[in-house]
Amino acid sequence: MQTDFLIIGSGLAGLNYVITVARKNPDKHILAVTKGNEDESNTKYAQGGVAIVHKSTDSFEKHIQDTLIAGDGLCDEEIVNMVINEGPKCLEELIQLGVNFDKDDLGNFDLGKEGGHSENRVVHFQDITGHEIERSLIREVKELKNVQLLDHHFALDLITNHHAEVKETELSCYGAYVLNQRTNEVIKILSKITFLATGGIGQVYSHTTNPLIATGDGIAMAYRAKAEIRGIEFVQFHPTALYEHDVSPTFLISEAVRGFGAKLRTIDGKTFMENYDEREELASRDIVARAIDSELKKRGDQYVYLDCTQLNEHEFKEHFPNIYEKCLSLGIDPLKQLIPVVPAQHYLCGGIHTNTWGETGIRNLFACGECAHTGLHGANRLASNSLLEAFVFSKRCATRASELIETVPLNSAIKNWDSKGTSTPEELILITHNRNAVQNIMWDYVGIVRSNKRLKRALKRLESIYSETEELYKRSTLSPQLCELRNLITVAYLITQHSLERMENKGGFYKIDLDD
Ligand code: FAD
Ligand code: SIN
């Protein structure tokens, strides 16, 4: 297959790029592949909303300051300025794309508050903002005549100089090898410009709010292709995932619930956030997650409680219908009973390093959204800045790619995927065991609080799973499960190695023995 623009991923970053390049280039062909159902993504599960300066008492300066404070000195200020200033335009365009946002009785946007924000500035649709965004963008993509969207197509590897018959000197991307999951065939997709929007890495951990697709494939592919990976040690843990024994992914209890007035309590009913930060429940995520972790370790408890019993019943049900229903389905009435919560992996602040236009160090390869490192988040992402970043950067990438497209030739002298010497997949159980093993190693040794000793132990164990999995990979026919396992191991290795190398605690990164 060949195309002008190849897009890998159909979350907000992928879909908004598709829409923008398709509109800018009506005579070009755009091909998007996604490994699950077309709407399956982290985007679909976003709850709180999109942080945007809107009301007159707020200002760009305040949002910029909040972002910089959360990022703990490691944000790129130029990027922060640019993204935050684009917020109002982003809101306007999302509305034009058909996305609904809640308004109050006076017709003004209902603005939620989340941790680290000095103002109410989060536009949302109930507590299912991501679902509403994903629905609207997919509908728009379907209207575009020059776009082909292939679901259940798993990108295996980027095509670079390594696969080209004629070698160029500059490292370049010529498309990707993709597994059609329905026919089990590997397709060579040649593309002038390739866009990675593969999302997060939550499945590296045994407790995560991310869905099963979040296996860091784009980061692993880019790393194999020799792109630069930055800031991957900055893993964000959300303080309040619903505690359910042995359930993963975990259901999120949005930070907006704390913004609404909910309090955290230990299981004997005592509040504790006042001992950790003057902003209490609305301190930034890293602080609240570490405070909960510390209380759990001190007390030997499995969870803390989120207390919503003092909140206005009507307003709670109106703002958080999805959370309310989920709790009821488990026998918890959140307005009468306390909700058990625990921190879980939620977001990756680092990833494939890009410039201000979303270009990676590999020519004609862009990266955007959660898989990318733009410099916006620094050491810790401010709540609800991720959807904003994905929207703003996907548009910038589309602008830059549209400028480039006429100058990029299609390289068709590319080798076919070599699957010689492989046989039917080994028992899936071997793959599942190793996936669980990686997740447990990462949760136990590379979690909220790290130490060099634990990181070294993690590395040793990961190395042995890596060798075993590479052996399996060499002799087995490809399966998405096996490819995801390889990618998870790569990402786990990168997080651990970067954590060992980091000699300073910042934002979401905390190591107890920096000097050892
Ligand atoms: P995603 O939306 O994750 O999309 C990635 C896509 O790539 C998916 O379609 C996936 O199937 C596809 N893909 C992955 N690997 C491959 C492969 N190998 N081949 C083909 N396709 C592939 N952020 C906010 O700003 N506000 C919020 O309120 C908010 N709430 C959240 C709540 C939850 C529960 C979660 C999990 C996250 C939340 N976030 C929120 C974070 C935010 O949703 C994500 O960071 C953002 O949606 C990422 O968008 P994306 O397009 O980069 O990736
Ligand atoms: C939430 O609603 O708590 C998640 C918001 C985010 O991840 O930005």
Provide a brief overview of the structure:
The chain is of the alpha/beta class.
CATH architecture of the largest domain: 3-Layer(bba) Sandwich
Low-confidence stretches: none
Which CATH top level class of the largest domain fits?
Alpha Beta
Number of domains: 3
Q: Output the radius of gyration.
A: 22 Å
Mean pLDDT: 96
What is CATH's topology name of the largest domain? Answer: FAD/NAD(P)-binding domain
What proportion of the residues form beta strands (DSSP E)?
15-25%
The CATH superfamily label of the largest domain reads FAD/NAD(P)-binding domain
What's the SSE blueprint?
Blueprint: E1 2-8, H1 12-24, E2 30-33, E3 50-51, H2 60-71, H3 77-85, H4 87-96, E4 122-123, H5 129-143, E5 147-150, E6 153-160, E7 173-180, E8 185-196, H6 217-224, E9 229-230, E10 235-242, H7 255-259, E11 263-265, H8 285-299, E12 304-307, H9 313-319, H10 321-329, E13 339-348, E14 351-353, E15 365-367, E16 372-373, H11 386-404, H12 428-445, H13 452-475, H14 480-501
Parallel strand pairs: 1-2, 1-8, 2-5, 8-15, 14-16
Antiparallel strand pairs: 3-4, 6-7, 7-8, 9-14, 10-13, 11-12, 12-13
Bound molecules: flavin-adenine dinucleotide and succinic acid (SIN).
Task: Provide a descriptive summary of the structure in words.
- With about 525 residues, the chain is an alpha/beta fold.
- It has three domains: about 1-235 and about 350-405, FAD/NAD(P)-binding domain (3-Layer(bba) Sandwich); about 240-345, Succinate dehydrogenase/fumarate reductase flavoprotein, catalytic domain (Flavocytochrome C3, Chain A, domain 1, Alpha-Beta Complex); about 430-500, Methane Monooxygenase Hydroxylase, Chain G, domain 1 (Up-down Bundle), CATH 1.20.58.100.
- About 35% of the residues lie in helices and about 15% in strands.
- The strands form four sheets. Strands 1, 2, 5, 6, 7, 8 and 15 form a seven-stranded mixed sheet that branches.
- The longest helix is centred in the C-terminal third of the chain and has 24 residues, at about 450-475.
- It is globular, with a radius of gyration of 22 Å.
- The model has no long low-confidence stretch (mean pLDDT about 95).
- Bound molecules: flavin-adenine dinucleotide (FAD) and succinic acid.
